[in-house]
Amino acid sequence: MTQQIQRRSFLAAGAAVVGAFGVGTAQASFVKAPQKWDVSTDILVIGSGGAGLAAAVSAKEAGAKNVLLIEKLSFVGGNTMIASGFYNCVDPVRQKKSNVEDSIEKHFQQTIAGGDYRGDPVLVRQLVEQAYPTLQWLESHGMKFKDTVFQVYGALWPRSHTPLEAKGNGYIRVLKQACDKLGVTIQTDTKLVQFIREEPQGGKLLGVLVDQEGEKKYIRAKAVVLATGGFASNPTLRGLHDQRLVNISTTNNPACSTGEGLIAANEAGAYLVGMDYIQCNPGKPVGKKYRGVLHNEVSRYIMINKKAVRFINEDARRDVIRDAILAQPDRLAFSVVDDDGLHTQDHIVIETIEKMLKEGEAWKANSFEELGQKMGLDPKVFKKTVEEYNAITKTGKDPMGKAPRNASHAIIKPPFWACYSAISAHHTMGGVRINKDTQVIDLNGKVIPAFYAAGEVTGGIHGTNRLGGNAIADIFVHGRIAGARAAAYAAKNA
Prior knowledge:
Blueprint: H1 3-20, E1 39-46, H2 50-61, E2 67-70, E3 87-88, H3 94-97, H4 104-114, H5 121-140, E4 145-150, E5 160-163, H6 169-182, E6 185-187, E7 190-199, E8 202-212, E9 215-226, H7 235-241, E10 249-250, H8 260-267, E11 272-273, E12 278-283, E13 302-304, H9 318-326, E14 334-337, H10 339-342, H11 347-359, E15 362-365, H12 368-374, H13 379-395, E16 416-420, E17 422-428, E18 431-433, E19 439-441, E20 447-453, E21 458-459, H14 470-492
Helix pairs in contact: 1-7, 1-8, 2-6, 2-14, 4-5, 5-14, 12-13
Protein backbone atom coordinates (compact mmCIF):
# COMPACT_ATOMS: atom_id res chain seq x y z
CA MET A 1 0.00 0.00 0.00
CA THR A 2 1.39 3.37 -0.90
CA GLN A 3 1.98 6.03 1.73
CA GLN A 4 -0.64 8.20 0.09
CA ILE A 5 -3.30 5.52 0.32
CA GLN A 6 -2.35 4.66 3.90
CA ARG A 7 -2.68 8.27 4.99
CA ARG A 8 -5.92 8.82 3.14
CA SER A 9 -7.36 5.61 4.56
CA PHE A 10 -6.45 6.57 8.10
CA LEU A 11 -7.98 10.02 7.74
CA ALA A 12 -11.13 8.61 6.16
CA ALA A 13 -11.55 5.89 8.76
CA GLY A 14 -13.36 8.14 11.20
CA ALA A 15 -15.73 9.25 8.47
CA ALA A 16 -16.34 5.61 7.62
CA VAL A 17 -17.73 5.13 11.13
CA VAL A 18 -20.13 8.00 10.59
CA GLY A 19 -21.10 6.65 7.21
CA ALA A 20 -21.87 3.31 8.78
CA PHE A 21 -24.70 4.93 10.70
CA GLY A 22 -25.95 6.80 7.69
CA VAL A 23 -25.36 10.30 8.96
CA GLY A 24 -22.36 11.34 6.94
CA THR A 25 -19.66 10.36 4.55
CA ALA A 26 -16.03 10.98 3.93
CA GLN A 27 -15.20 14.26 2.25
CA ALA A 28 -12.56 13.46 -0.32
CA SER A 29 -11.03 15.85 -2.80
CA PHE A 30 -13.01 15.62 -6.03
CA VAL A 31 -11.17 14.06 -8.94
CA LYS A 32 -12.41 15.46 -12.22
CA ALA A 33 -12.77 13.23 -15.21
CA PRO A 34 -9.70 13.53 -17.41
CA GLN A 35 -9.91 14.98 -20.88
CA LYS A 36 -8.49 11.69 -22.13
CA TRP A 37 -8.91 8.33 -20.44
CA ASP A 38 -5.98 5.93 -20.51
CA VAL A 39 -8.19 2.84 -20.81
CA SER A 40 -11.84 2.31 -21.74
CA THR A 41 -13.90 -0.82 -21.17
CA ASP A 42 -17.50 -1.93 -20.97
CA ILE A 43 -17.20 -3.53 -17.53
CA LEU A 44 -14.55 -2.88 -14.91
CA VAL A 45 -14.30 -5.39 -12.04
CA ILE A 46 -12.15 -4.40 -9.05
CA GLY A 47 -10.81 -7.37 -7.09
CA SER A 48 -9.97 -10.91 -8.19
CA GLY A 49 -11.35 -13.01 -5.35
CA GLY A 50 -14.39 -15.23 -5.76
CA ALA A 51 -16.87 -12.35 -6.12
CA GLY A 52 -14.75 -10.49 -8.67
CA LEU A 53 -14.01 -13.54 -10.82
CA ALA A 54 -17.67 -14.60 -10.71
CA ALA A 55 -18.72 -11.10 -11.79
CA ALA A 56 -16.24 -11.05 -14.67
CA VAL A 57 -17.35 -14.46 -15.96
CA SER A 58 -21.03 -13.61 -15.55
CA ALA A 59 -20.62 -10.26 -17.35
CA LYS A 60 -19.05 -12.03 -20.31
CA GLU A 61 -21.76 -14.68 -20.33
CA ALA A 62 -24.36 -11.89 -20.30
CA GLY A 63 -22.92 -10.42 -23.48
CA ALA A 64 -20.42 -7.79 -22.34
CA LYS A 65 -17.88 -7.32 -25.11
CA ASN A 66 -14.99 -5.95 -23.04
CA VAL A 67 -14.44 -6.92 -19.40
CA LEU A 68 -11.38 -5.69 -17.50
CA LEU A 69 -10.57 -7.09 -14.05
CA ILE A 70 -7.95 -5.31 -11.94
CA GLU A 71 -6.19 -6.68 -8.86
CA LYS A 72 -3.87 -4.82 -6.48
CA LEU A 73 -1.72 -7.90 -5.83
CA SER A 74 0.56 -9.63 -8.30
CA PHE A 75 -1.72 -12.69 -8.49
CA VAL A 76 -5.43 -13.48 -8.64
CA GLY A 77 -7.45 -15.21 -5.97
CA GLY A 78 -7.72 -12.67 -3.17
CA ASN A 79 -8.88 -13.93 0.18
CA THR A 80 -10.97 -16.67 -1.42
CA MET A 81 -7.76 -18.54 -2.18
CA ILE A 82 -7.19 -19.26 1.52
CA ALA A 83 -10.82 -19.52 2.60
CA SER A 84 -12.07 -22.80 4.02
CA GLY A 85 -14.30 -23.01 0.97
CA PHE A 86 -17.44 -24.51 2.53
CA TYR A 87 -20.55 -23.57 0.56
CA ASN A 88 -24.04 -23.46 2.11
CA CYS A 89 -27.12 -24.24 0.10
CA VAL A 90 -30.24 -26.34 0.21
CA ASP A 91 -29.32 -29.28 -2.01
CA PRO A 92 -32.09 -31.83 -2.75
CA VAL A 93 -29.58 -34.42 -3.99
CA ARG A 94 -26.71 -34.35 -1.49
CA GLN A 95 -28.86 -33.65 1.57
CA LYS A 96 -31.13 -36.57 0.70
CA LYS A 97 -28.06 -38.84 0.57
CA SER A 98 -27.11 -37.61 4.04
CA ASN A 99 -30.69 -37.99 5.37
CA VAL A 100 -30.91 -34.27 6.05
CA GLU A 101 -34.26 -32.52 5.92
CA ASP A 102 -33.96 -28.91 4.86
CA SER A 103 -35.75 -26.15 3.02
CA ILE A 104 -35.17 -22.72 1.52
CA GLU A 105 -37.39 -21.30 4.24
CA LYS A 106 -35.32 -22.91 7.00
CA HIS A 107 -32.10 -21.55 5.48
CA PHE A 108 -33.74 -18.11 5.23
CA GLN A 109 -35.04 -18.11 8.79
CA GLN A 110 -31.75 -19.34 10.26
CA THR A 111 -29.77 -16.71 8.34
CA ILE A 112 -32.11 -13.90 9.37
CA ALA A 113 -32.30 -14.99 13.00
CA GLY A 114 -28.55 -15.78 13.11
CA GLY A 115 -27.89 -12.16 12.21
CA ASP A 116 -30.33 -10.86 14.85
CA TYR A 117 -32.77 -9.74 12.14
CA ARG A 118 -30.38 -7.02 11.00
CA GLY A 119 -29.89 -8.49 7.53
CA ASP A 120 -31.90 -7.21 4.57
CA PRO A 121 -34.60 -9.87 4.08
CA VAL A 122 -34.70 -9.22 0.32
CA LEU A 123 -30.97 -9.89 -0.03
CA VAL A 124 -31.10 -12.88 2.34
CA ARG A 125 -34.00 -14.37 0.37
CA GLN A 126 -32.04 -13.90 -2.84
CA LEU A 127 -28.97 -15.53 -1.28
CA VAL A 128 -30.74 -18.68 -0.12
CA GLU A 129 -32.84 -19.04 -3.28
CA GLN A 130 -29.94 -18.58 -5.67
CA ALA A 131 -27.33 -20.55 -3.71
CA TYR A 132 -28.14 -23.93 -5.29
CA PRO A 133 -28.49 -22.64 -8.89
CA THR A 134 -25.17 -20.85 -8.40
CA LEU A 135 -23.55 -24.04 -7.09
CA GLN A 136 -24.76 -25.75 -10.28
CA TRP A 137 -23.33 -22.85 -12.30
CA LEU A 138 -19.97 -23.35 -10.61
CA GLU A 139 -20.18 -27.08 -11.35
CA SER A 140 -20.87 -26.29 -15.00
CA HIS A 141 -17.49 -24.53 -15.05
CA GLY A 142 -15.74 -27.55 -13.56
CA MET A 143 -16.05 -27.03 -9.80
CA LYS A 144 -16.35 -30.31 -7.87
CA PHE A 145 -17.77 -31.00 -4.42
CA LYS A 146 -18.03 -34.04 -2.17
CA ASP A 147 -21.26 -36.03 -2.40
CA THR A 148 -22.15 -35.44 1.25
CA VAL A 149 -22.99 -32.37 3.34
CA PHE A 150 -22.24 -31.53 6.97
CA GLN A 151 -22.58 -28.66 9.44
CA VAL A 152 -19.52 -26.48 9.36
CA TYR A 153 -18.50 -24.43 12.41
CA GLY A 154 -21.07 -21.64 12.90
CA ALA A 155 -23.47 -22.92 10.21
CA LEU A 156 -26.44 -24.01 12.41
CA TRP A 157 -27.54 -26.79 9.98
CA PRO A 158 -25.92 -29.53 7.85
CA ARG A 159 -26.01 -27.90 4.41
CA SER A 160 -22.28 -27.17 4.00
CA HIS A 161 -20.64 -28.45 0.80
CA THR A 162 -16.96 -29.37 0.76
CA PRO A 163 -14.87 -28.68 -2.37
CA LEU A 164 -12.72 -31.57 -3.53
CA GLU A 165 -9.78 -29.19 -3.87
CA ALA A 166 -8.41 -27.82 -0.61
CA LYS A 167 -9.41 -24.35 0.58
CA GLY A 168 -10.67 -21.98 -2.12
CA ASN A 169 -8.25 -23.18 -4.77
CA GLY A 170 -10.90 -24.92 -6.85
CA TYR A 171 -13.15 -21.87 -7.12
CA ILE A 172 -10.29 -19.65 -8.22
CA ARG A 173 -8.92 -22.19 -10.69
CA VAL A 174 -12.19 -22.87 -12.53
CA LEU A 175 -13.26 -19.22 -12.68
CA LYS A 176 -9.80 -18.06 -13.78
CA GLN A 177 -9.95 -20.67 -16.56
CA ALA A 178 -13.41 -19.39 -17.51
CA CYS A 179 -12.08 -15.81 -17.63
CA ASP A 180 -9.25 -16.88 -19.91
CA LYS A 181 -11.62 -18.83 -22.16
CA LEU A 182 -14.13 -15.99 -22.40
CA GLY A 183 -11.52 -13.30 -23.03
CA VAL A 184 -11.60 -11.35 -19.76
CA THR A 185 -8.58 -9.05 -19.49
CA ILE A 186 -6.90 -9.41 -16.09
CA GLN A 187 -4.48 -6.75 -14.91
CA THR A 188 -2.56 -7.33 -11.67
CA ASP A 189 -0.44 -4.90 -9.63
CA THR A 190 -3.15 -2.30 -10.16
CA LYS A 191 -4.46 -0.52 -7.05
CA LEU A 192 -7.69 1.40 -6.78
CA VAL A 193 -7.04 5.02 -5.74
CA GLN A 194 -10.36 6.77 -6.22
CA PHE A 195 -13.71 6.55 -7.95
CA ILE A 196 -14.64 9.26 -10.44
CA ARG A 197 -18.22 10.51 -10.68
CA GLU A 198 -19.83 13.17 -12.81
CA GLU A 199 -19.82 15.58 -9.86
CA PRO A 200 -18.66 15.46 -6.23
CA GLN A 201 -20.55 12.56 -4.68
CA GLY A 202 -23.20 12.92 -7.36
CA GLY A 203 -24.13 11.68 -10.80
CA LYS A 204 -23.23 8.36 -12.33
CA LEU A 205 -19.93 6.60 -11.86
CA LEU A 206 -17.62 7.30 -14.78
CA GLY A 207 -14.58 5.24 -13.89
CA VAL A 208 -11.62 5.06 -11.53
CA LEU A 209 -8.16 6.40 -10.89
CA VAL A 210 -5.67 3.58 -10.29
CA ASP A 211 -2.02 3.17 -9.41
CA GLN A 212 -0.40 0.68 -11.74
CA GLU A 213 3.09 -0.07 -10.48
CA GLY A 214 3.62 3.57 -9.50
CA GLU A 215 1.97 5.07 -12.56
CA LYS A 216 -1.41 6.81 -12.27
CA LYS A 217 -3.96 5.81 -14.88
CA TYR A 218 -7.58 6.64 -15.58
CA ILE A 219 -9.93 3.81 -16.50
CA ARG A 220 -13.31 4.63 -18.09
CA ALA A 221 -16.05 2.05 -17.72
CA LYS A 222 -19.71 1.86 -18.65
CA ALA A 223 -20.27 -0.05 -15.39
CA VAL A 224 -18.07 -0.90 -12.41
CA VAL A 225 -18.26 -3.88 -10.03
CA LEU A 226 -16.53 -3.42 -6.68
CA ALA A 227 -15.35 -6.73 -5.17
CA THR A 228 -12.40 -5.82 -2.96
CA GLY A 229 -13.41 -7.68 0.21
CA GLY A 230 -13.77 -6.46 3.78
CA PHE A 231 -11.41 -5.00 6.39
CA ALA A 232 -10.59 -7.90 8.72
CA SER A 233 -6.86 -7.43 8.04
CA ASN A 234 -6.91 -3.74 9.03
CA PRO A 235 -6.43 -3.36 12.83
CA THR A 236 -7.06 0.39 12.66
CA LEU A 237 -10.48 -0.04 11.09
CA ARG A 238 -11.28 -3.00 13.36
CA GLY A 239 -10.39 -0.92 16.40
CA LEU A 240 -12.71 1.89 15.38
CA HIS A 241 -15.60 -0.51 15.79
CA ASP A 242 -14.42 -2.89 18.53
CA GLN A 243 -11.35 -2.11 20.63
CA ARG A 244 -11.12 -5.74 21.76
CA LEU A 245 -10.15 -6.70 18.21
CA VAL A 246 -7.10 -4.49 17.67
CA ASN A 247 -4.34 -6.73 19.03
CA ILE A 248 -5.42 -10.03 17.55
CA SER A 249 -4.37 -12.06 14.53
CA THR A 250 -6.42 -12.47 11.36
CA THR A 251 -7.38 -15.53 9.35
CA ASN A 252 -7.21 -13.40 6.21
CA ASN A 253 -4.34 -12.88 3.82
CA PRO A 254 -2.73 -9.78 5.43
CA ALA A 255 -2.40 -8.19 2.01
CA CYS A 256 -6.14 -8.59 1.37
CA SER A 257 -9.19 -7.34 3.24
CA THR A 258 -7.56 -4.06 4.17
CA GLY A 259 -10.57 -1.85 3.45
CA GLU A 260 -9.33 0.51 0.72
CA GLY A 261 -12.27 -0.34 -1.51
CA LEU A 262 -14.75 0.44 1.26
CA ILE A 263 -13.12 3.76 2.02
CA ALA A 264 -12.95 4.77 -1.64
CA ALA A 265 -16.62 3.87 -2.11
CA ASN A 266 -17.56 5.84 1.00
CA GLU A 267 -15.62 8.83 -0.32
CA ALA A 268 -17.59 8.56 -3.55
CA GLY A 269 -20.87 8.78 -1.63
CA ALA A 270 -21.71 5.13 -0.98
CA TYR A 271 -23.67 4.35 2.17
CA LEU A 272 -21.93 1.99 4.61
CA VAL A 273 -23.96 -0.29 6.84
CA GLY A 274 -23.19 -2.69 9.70
CA MET A 275 -19.57 -1.70 10.17
CA ASP A 276 -19.64 -2.69 13.86
CA TYR A 277 -20.31 -6.32 13.03
CA ILE A 278 -16.94 -8.06 12.95
CA GLN A 279 -16.76 -11.83 13.03
CA CYS A 280 -13.92 -13.80 14.55
CA ASN A 281 -12.91 -17.43 14.26
CA PRO A 282 -10.63 -19.63 16.32
CA GLY A 283 -7.11 -18.88 15.16
CA LYS A 284 -3.54 -18.40 16.26
CA PRO A 285 -2.54 -16.28 19.24
CA VAL A 286 -0.54 -13.17 18.41
CA GLY A 287 3.11 -14.11 18.01
CA LYS A 288 2.51 -17.70 16.97
CA LYS A 289 3.51 -18.97 13.54
CA TYR A 290 0.63 -21.15 12.40
CA ARG A 291 -3.15 -21.26 12.56
CA GLY A 292 -4.55 -24.67 13.38
CA VAL A 293 -8.02 -25.61 12.15
CA LEU A 294 -9.52 -28.49 14.12
CA HIS A 295 -12.95 -26.91 14.53
CA ASN A 296 -14.53 -27.08 11.07
CA GLU A 297 -16.77 -30.08 11.74
CA VAL A 298 -18.60 -29.20 14.94
CA SER A 299 -19.58 -32.80 15.70
CA ARG A 300 -15.93 -33.87 15.86
CA TYR A 301 -14.29 -31.47 18.31
CA ILE A 302 -14.55 -29.90 21.72
CA MET A 303 -13.23 -26.55 22.90
CA ILE A 304 -11.62 -26.10 26.32
CA ASN A 305 -9.91 -23.27 28.19
CA LYS A 306 -6.67 -23.08 30.20
CA LYS A 307 -8.47 -24.68 33.14
CA ALA A 308 -8.98 -27.74 30.89
CA VAL A 309 -12.79 -27.47 30.96
CA ARG A 310 -15.41 -26.82 28.29
CA PHE A 311 -16.93 -23.36 28.44
CA ILE A 312 -19.20 -23.17 25.37
CA ASN A 313 -21.34 -25.41 23.17
CA GLU A 314 -19.19 -25.79 20.08
CA ASP A 315 -22.07 -25.38 17.60
CA ALA A 316 -23.03 -21.94 18.91
CA ARG A 317 -23.06 -18.83 16.75
CA ARG A 318 -19.65 -17.48 15.89
CA ASP A 319 -20.19 -14.20 17.72
CA VAL A 320 -21.22 -16.11 20.84
CA ILE A 321 -18.06 -18.23 20.68
CA ARG A 322 -15.95 -15.11 20.01
CA ASP A 323 -17.22 -13.40 23.15
CA ALA A 324 -16.84 -16.60 25.19
CA ILE A 325 -13.19 -17.03 24.18
CA LEU A 326 -12.43 -13.35 24.83
CA ALA A 327 -13.77 -13.89 28.36
CA GLN A 328 -11.41 -16.82 29.10
CA PRO A 329 -8.09 -16.55 30.98
CA ASP A 330 -5.55 -14.93 28.65
CA ARG A 331 -8.32 -14.84 26.00
CA LEU A 332 -7.18 -18.34 25.04
CA ALA A 333 -8.85 -21.64 24.18
CA PHE A 334 -7.88 -24.98 22.64
CA SER A 335 -9.56 -27.29 20.12
CA VAL A 336 -9.36 -31.03 20.74
CA VAL A 337 -10.11 -33.92 18.33
CA ASP A 338 -9.28 -37.59 17.98
CA ASP A 339 -7.57 -39.09 14.94
CA ASP A 340 -10.86 -39.59 13.11
CA GLY A 341 -11.73 -35.94 13.73
CA LEU A 342 -8.38 -34.79 12.37
CA HIS A 343 -8.81 -36.77 9.19
CA THR A 344 -12.14 -35.19 8.37
CA GLN A 345 -10.02 -32.12 7.51
CA ASP A 346 -8.41 -31.51 4.13
CA HIS A 347 -4.76 -32.31 3.53
CA ILE A 348 -3.60 -28.69 3.95
CA VAL A 349 -5.03 -28.57 7.49
CA ILE A 350 -3.40 -31.89 8.35
CA GLU A 351 -0.05 -30.76 6.95
CA THR A 352 -0.32 -27.51 8.94
CA ILE A 353 -0.99 -29.40 12.18
CA GLU A 354 2.09 -31.54 11.54
CA LYS A 355 4.16 -28.36 11.14
CA MET A 356 2.66 -26.96 14.34
CA LEU A 357 3.79 -30.03 16.26
CA LYS A 358 7.40 -29.13 15.52
CA GLU A 359 6.84 -25.54 16.68
CA GLY A 360 5.09 -26.53 19.91
CA GLU A 361 1.85 -24.95 18.68
CA ALA A 362 -0.05 -28.23 18.44
CA TRP A 363 0.11 -31.43 20.41
CA LYS A 364 -0.68 -35.13 19.99
CA ALA A 365 -0.66 -38.03 22.43
CA ASN A 366 -2.00 -41.54 22.86
CA SER A 367 -3.81 -40.77 26.11
CA PHE A 368 -5.84 -37.89 27.50
CA GLU A 369 -3.50 -37.43 30.46
CA GLU A 370 -0.46 -37.26 28.21
CA LEU A 371 -2.14 -34.75 25.89
CA GLY A 372 -3.20 -32.52 28.77
CA GLN A 373 0.30 -32.60 30.23
CA LYS A 374 1.90 -31.68 26.91
CA MET A 375 -0.49 -28.73 26.62
CA GLY A 376 0.52 -27.47 30.04
CA LEU A 377 -2.92 -28.18 31.52
CA ASP A 378 -4.00 -30.23 34.52
CA PRO A 379 -3.94 -33.76 33.05
CA LYS A 380 -6.53 -35.15 35.49
CA VAL A 381 -8.99 -32.35 34.79
CA PHE A 382 -8.35 -32.68 31.05
CA LYS A 383 -9.08 -36.42 31.15
CA LYS A 384 -12.25 -35.86 33.16
CA THR A 385 -13.47 -33.21 30.68
CA VAL A 386 -13.02 -35.44 27.64
CA GLU A 387 -14.51 -38.48 29.34
CA GLU A 388 -17.55 -36.47 30.45
CA TYR A 389 -18.03 -35.28 26.89
CA ASN A 390 -17.72 -38.83 25.56
CA ALA A 391 -20.48 -39.88 27.96
CA ILE A 392 -22.66 -37.08 26.60
CA THR A 393 -22.33 -38.46 23.05
CA LYS A 394 -24.12 -41.64 24.15
CA THR A 395 -27.25 -39.68 25.11
CA GLY A 396 -26.96 -36.53 22.99
CA LYS A 397 -27.89 -34.48 26.05
CA ASP A 398 -25.24 -31.80 26.52
CA PRO A 399 -25.55 -29.50 29.57
CA MET A 400 -23.75 -26.87 27.48
CA GLY A 401 -26.52 -27.04 24.86
CA LYS A 402 -24.77 -28.67 21.91
CA ALA A 403 -27.40 -30.10 19.57
CA PRO A 404 -27.80 -33.92 19.75
CA ARG A 405 -26.85 -34.30 16.07
CA ASN A 406 -23.55 -32.56 16.86
CA ALA A 407 -22.88 -34.18 20.23
CA SER A 408 -22.60 -37.46 18.42
CA HIS A 409 -18.92 -38.35 17.95
CA ALA A 410 -16.91 -39.41 20.95
CA ILE A 411 -13.23 -38.55 21.13
CA ILE A 412 -11.94 -42.10 21.42
CA LYS A 413 -9.50 -42.96 18.62
CA PRO A 414 -5.84 -42.21 19.39
CA PRO A 415 -3.72 -40.36 18.77
CA PHE A 416 -5.52 -37.36 20.20
CA TRP A 417 -4.80 -33.89 18.85
CA ALA A 418 -5.07 -30.32 20.11
CA CYS A 419 -4.11 -26.82 19.03
CA TYR A 420 -4.58 -23.21 20.08
CA SER A 421 -7.93 -21.57 19.43
CA ALA A 422 -7.39 -17.92 20.15
CA ILE A 423 -9.53 -15.29 18.50
CA SER A 424 -8.67 -14.08 15.00
CA ALA A 425 -10.48 -11.48 12.91
CA HIS A 426 -12.19 -13.45 10.18
CA HIS A 427 -15.03 -11.67 8.39
CA THR A 428 -16.54 -8.20 8.41
CA MET A 429 -20.29 -8.07 7.87
CA GLY A 430 -20.32 -4.32 7.22
CA GLY A 431 -19.80 -2.62 3.90
CA VAL A 432 -21.52 -0.75 1.08
CA ARG A 433 -25.26 -1.09 0.94
CA ILE A 434 -26.65 -2.71 -2.21
CA ASN A 435 -30.09 -3.56 -3.54
CA LYS A 436 -31.22 -6.91 -4.99
CA ASP A 437 -29.61 -5.95 -8.31
CA THR A 438 -26.32 -5.36 -6.43
CA GLN A 439 -26.44 -1.64 -7.27
CA VAL A 440 -24.60 0.54 -4.75
CA ILE A 441 -26.84 2.82 -2.68
CA ASP A 442 -25.90 6.34 -1.57
CA LEU A 443 -26.64 8.17 1.69
CA ASN A 444 -29.97 9.38 0.35
CA GLY A 445 -31.11 5.86 -0.41
CA LYS A 446 -30.67 6.32 -4.13
CA VAL A 447 -28.84 4.12 -6.63
CA ILE A 448 -25.44 5.33 -7.81
CA PRO A 449 -25.76 4.72 -11.55
CA ALA A 450 -23.22 2.34 -13.13
CA PHE A 451 -21.93 1.21 -9.70
CA TYR A 452 -22.31 -2.41 -8.49
CA ALA A 453 -20.77 -4.38 -5.64
CA ALA A 454 -20.58 -7.96 -4.43
CA GLY A 455 -18.90 -10.08 -1.77
CA GLU A 456 -17.49 -9.05 1.57
CA VAL A 457 -17.19 -5.41 0.50
CA THR A 458 -20.99 -5.23 0.84
CA GLY A 459 -22.98 -4.93 4.04
CA GLY A 460 -26.53 -5.58 5.18
CA ILE A 461 -26.81 -9.24 4.14
CA HIS A 462 -25.56 -11.18 7.15
CA GLY A 463 -26.67 -8.80 9.88
CA THR A 464 -24.73 -8.99 13.14
CA ASN A 465 -23.41 -12.50 12.56
CA ARG A 466 -22.66 -14.47 9.40
CA LEU A 467 -23.48 -18.17 9.43
CA GLY A 468 -20.54 -20.42 8.61
CA GLY A 469 -20.65 -21.43 4.94
CA ASN A 470 -22.85 -18.50 3.91
CA ALA A 471 -19.96 -16.22 2.86
CA ILE A 472 -18.78 -18.47 0.04
CA ALA A 473 -22.34 -18.77 -1.22
CA ASP A 474 -22.78 -15.00 -0.93
CA ILE A 475 -19.71 -14.05 -2.96
CA PHE A 476 -20.67 -16.28 -5.86
CA VAL A 477 -24.41 -15.61 -5.80
CA HIS A 478 -24.04 -11.85 -5.74
CA GLY A 479 -20.88 -11.79 -7.84
CA ARG A 480 -22.76 -13.65 -10.55
CA ILE A 481 -25.73 -11.26 -10.27
CA ALA A 482 -23.48 -8.17 -10.26
CA GLY A 483 -21.74 -9.20 -13.47
CA ALA A 484 -25.00 -9.86 -15.29
CA ARG A 485 -26.64 -6.63 -14.09
CA ALA A 486 -23.58 -4.55 -14.91
CA ALA A 487 -23.50 -6.03 -18.42
CA ALA A 488 -27.19 -5.24 -18.92
CA TYR A 489 -26.68 -1.65 -17.74
CA ALA A 490 -23.68 -1.17 -20.01
CA ALA A 491 -25.60 -2.49 -23.01
CA LYS A 492 -28.57 -0.22 -22.28
CA ASN A 493 -26.41 2.84 -21.77
CA ALA A 494 -23.88 2.26 -24.55
